[in-house]
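notes to self, project folder thing:

trying the whole complex as one job this time. last attempt i did each chain seperately and stitching them together was a nightmare. two parts in total, labels are on each line so i dont mix them up again. if this works i'll redo the older ones the same way
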Amino acid sequence: MEALDNLIIKLNRLPGVGIKSAQRLAFHILAMSDEDAQALAGSITEAKARVHYCPVCGNFTENELCSVCADQKRTSELICVVESARDVIFMERIHEFRGKYHVLGGVLSPMDGIGPDELRIKELLSRIENEGVKELILATNPDVEGEATASYLAKLIKPLGVRVSRIAHGIPIGGNLEYVDDVTLAKSIENRREM
Amino acid sequence: MEALDNLIIKLNRLPGVGIKSAQRLAFHILAMSDEDAQALAGSITEAKARVHYCPVCGNFTENELCSVCADQKRTSELICVVESARDVIFMERIHEFRGKYHVLGGVLSPMDGIGPDELRIKELLSRIENEGVKELILATNPDVEGEATASYLAKLIKPLGVRVSRIAHGIPIGGNLEYVDDVTLAKSIENRREM
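result (full assembly):
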């Protein structure tokens, strides 16, 4: 069945959707009412048509600026640099950060052909020049590429007279020494704080 | 962001897609090229428009009859009764069954208001009457509703002079007694075969 197979293939290409899940989803969609299936297809088209990148920070928005950049009460003096627009949601959930964001749109990854020019670094430098930025928090993920990207940015931006900090690595709150991996445990010793 | 939230809500309603997965999928879709996103939405619309139920067995098809019912080499003397069209795919994968199928479209579940009239049982009786059916294999799932549905069908159909059988329950091949649940283990003793 061509149309069904095609739907399964398309679903299978989504992240985290294996072939079994794609089959289950496809059969679920076929069993949906026509209205519900149309609403699902329509929500994809609609989101693609209406959502675009914020020209300032690179976050997703349906308006001219994203809600963070448009918020007059938030300061541009403190900018949190993240890999993707999704990370903004995670950071916003803690309701504590009152600065703004800058979405890189990825991390440095020479193997995949992603160098500094493929990320929104030029835009970051121009914000530092024009928005009176005093501190940059580098919140890329604590993996190889995320650390390399943070190091690269720190080396590039510290000479401009901006404070550059990195989010802390260590034992998660509520975590247990037994179940923490060795690298994190080593980091938690290295980054120990005097009490 | 209305369009993004709407997409996340719609994806979250799919089976096995939690709120975190729905978010990840939605952001992935936003990052897709316009063509790929359109192809995904289009494959949903297309599948819904072209795929329908086989009027004989209730399987999904894009033609008048499903591929199994249209296959002249397969016999109607042996009919395998399954819950859903997806189960037909699983059965077909073993390449051994040469009879036909009958898809019930669910299982008896009085709590959810699903009685015999909500399943394709009338259609099954009419096939038994008209297609020279000699044996019915009940392949509903081995859970409470699946067993109840199999019992109901056996009681209903055995008096019509048709052989009715149930798929075997027991230890999976390559399985290990240690990891098999108690009910399955008990079944494997109860259904033991002389060697």
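what i see at first glance: DSSP finds eight helices and six strands in chain A.
need to look closer tmrw
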